[in-house]
Amino acid sequence: MKNNLTKTFLTGAIILFIISGVFGAMYFLFSNIFGWVGLKILLTTITLFVACLLGLGSSKMSSEKGSINFVLGKLNYVLLLYLTGYVLVQVWLEPGNNDTLLQFSLVLGIISVAITHYSLLSGKINSKITKVSLYTTITLMIIVVLMLSYLVMSVIGSYNVDDTFYKLLGFFAVLDVTATIVTVLLKKVKG
Questions:
Q1: Are residues 89 and 3 part of one domain?
Q2: How far apart, in whole angstroms, are the C-alpha atoms of residue 22 and residue 33?
């Protein structure tokens, strides 16, 4: 099942990326012809493309039955279905503003991206240094997820967030990206 699902998500991502790219380029030239409907079509293809990319990570994790990865993969499928539906309803039906639902959906989106991020790093690890790097990455990822969730709740909730918070978020985000790259390279070199 993993192979078929992975191929489906990958094929969907490629097709939607091409459609989004071509349509997006055409929209720049002919925005007066396409109007709002064209923009909605573009947003729809981009939304589905992102869902396919995140689904790739879920399909990898869902194949590992009997593990936490299996549960996370299935949870991410549910999040992706909800988020894709939410965004498409917002794009096409324009139901109005609901700050609480928007906050909830954005936090779920952050969690979905974090699960997919984790799926890219998970797998068999033999080396002690690679395990340390992986656990460091996961810790940094959790810090970034918590900070982004707080930011979503604060900004939409009209609370002020000072510059120090943004600096700390940038600090941990850069460390997270660095640790991710180091982990992937260590997995290639050390196993």
A1: yes
A2: 15
